[in-house]
Amino acid sequence: MSSEQTPTTPETTGPRPRRLTYAALLAALEGLALVVGGVWILVLGLTGHPDDRQQAVTGGVTLVVLALLPLLAARGLLALRSWSRGPAVITQLLALPVAYNLLQADSMAIPGGIALAVVAVAALVLLVNPETTRALGIRGPGGTDK
């Protein structure tokens, strides 16, 4: 790879905007919640008496692996890496249908759905903010900054 394809320094040298830091913290929070949920399901699947042990273990491992996406995105956002906005946005877009399904439940899942929806929408707003876009060195359409 040439240095033109992978720059070694960020395109911007200014300080990291607070909005970007908040977006990274929200992504990290989601990643940590996925890890905790995955480990919880995994432990219950291995030590408890689930209906289907294999399904419980698979679900727990899947959640832990899925946690890598927002955690890596959060790390990239804190390091001002432009590639990190894509995974962060994808994580938020995937969280919205999950929040909707939690809101449709007649159980204790409703507060979780509300919290997840608030976090996902807040993170999306922070990620598409022009200040965040500039800090990450993402150019507008046609490669020009506006």
Structure description:
23% of the residues are buried. The protein contains six helices and no strands. The chain has helices spanning 18-47, 53-66, 68-78, 85-104, 109-127, 130-135. The protein has 146 residues and is mostly helical.
Short overview:
By secondary structure, this protein is mostly helical. 68% of the residues lie in helices and 0% in strands.
Task: Give the SSE map.
Layout: H1 18-47, H2 53-66, H3 68-78, H4 85-104, H5 109-127, H6 130-135
Helix pairs in contact: 1-2, 1-3, 1-5, 3-4, 4-5
Which structural category do the helix and sheet elements fall into? mainly alpha
Mean pLDDT: 87
- Biggest sheet character: none
The fraction of residues in strands falls at under 5%
How widely separated are the two ends? Answer: 30 Å
Query: What's the helix count?
Result: 6
- Given as residue ranges, the uncertain stretches (5+ residues, pLDDT < 50) are 6-12
SSE order, one letter for each helix or strand? HHHHHH
- Classify the helix fraction into a percent range: 55-70%
Number of strands: 0
Broad shape: elongated
What is the CA-based Rg, rounded? 18 Å
Tags for this entry?
146 residues; mainly alpha; 6 helices; 68% helix; 0% strand; elongated
